[in-house]
Amino acid sequence: TQLLEQSPQFLSIQEGENLTVYCNSSSVFSSLQWYRQEPGEGPVLLVTVVTGGEVKKLKRLTFQFGDARKDSSLHITAAQPGDTGLYLCAYTNAGKSTFGDGTTLTVKP
Amino acid sequence: GAVVSQHPSWVICKSGTSVKIECRSLDFQATTMFWYRQFPKQSLMLMATSNEGSKATYEQGVEKDKFLINHASLTLSTLTVTSAHPEDSSFYICSARSGDLYGYTFGSGTRLTVV
Question: What is the pLDDT of residue B101?
């Protein structure tokens, strides 16, 4: 099983601040997925990155896949309280998804 | 978009009893569904792969006789926690591939508390 390491584990910031969370591995992936999970809910897929060096934007969220396809980052601009949640990166192999440990983000108003 | 529905959203049961959790794909057919377990402050861990019309495939360390999975139709998979004990208390989540080539749609989860 390939390991996905996410950092930081916890992040607490004020509304309006920018932040970046990371998903790193020593393995090469054909793609990585980012999910957001709110308390008491299942994860919701935000984006899939496929091509090395790829950058995808989803409103204030910017996702990047490393050139070597071993790592990915999620940057949030001007964070809002609604961005609070657990951010998970994951890869899929033979239909099974393996998740990193996640970054718990709290955005205070 | 694709929706996966789980029921119940939460359940409290007594130790030694069995609990059934349903996972339905509402607007698509799913030959394969996946069951995950998530403990507080932790990530999701895959328990088993549910295959329509055949036996489920369990991950290493997951007791198949304790976590019974039935996938009798293309839209329904059930997970039965048999002889539940307090250590089985967790958040159980199912997922299915809904069309996105790489990602999966997850249910809203079931919070199981065994007392």
Answer: 62
Nearest chain A Cα distance for residue B115, angstroms: 19
DSSP codes, A14-67: ETT--EEEEEE-SS--S-EEEEEE-TTS--EEEEEE-STT-EEEETTEEEEE-T
**Taking every pair of C-alpha atoms in chain A, what is the biggest distance, in angstroms?**
42
How many CB atoms are located within 10 Å of the residue A74 CB? 24
Q: CB–CB of B43 and A100 under 8 A?
A: yes
| Residue type present at position B11 | V
Using the 8-state DSSP alphabet, how is residue B59 labeled? P
How many C-beta atoms surround the C-beta of residue A93 within 10 A? 11
In B, minimum Cα distance to A46 occurs at: B103
Question: Going residue by residue through chain B (115 aa), what tens digit of pLDDT does each one get?
Answer: 788 999 999 999 999 999 999 999 998 888 899 999 999 888 999 999 998 888 999 999 999 999 999 998 999 999 999 999 999 999 999 999 876 666 688 999 999 999 9
Question: Is any Cβ of chain B less than 8 angstroms from the Cβ of A31?
Answer: yes
Q: Cβ contacts (< 8 Å) between B42 and chain A: which residues? A: 101
Q: Per the structure block, which two tokens stand in for A71?
A: 């790592």
Q: Are A89 and A73 in contact (CB under 8 A)?
A: no
- Condensed to tens digits (0 to 9), the pLDDT of residues A33-62 reads 999 999 899 999 999 999 999 999 999 999
Which pair of tokens denotes residue B82? 């048999």
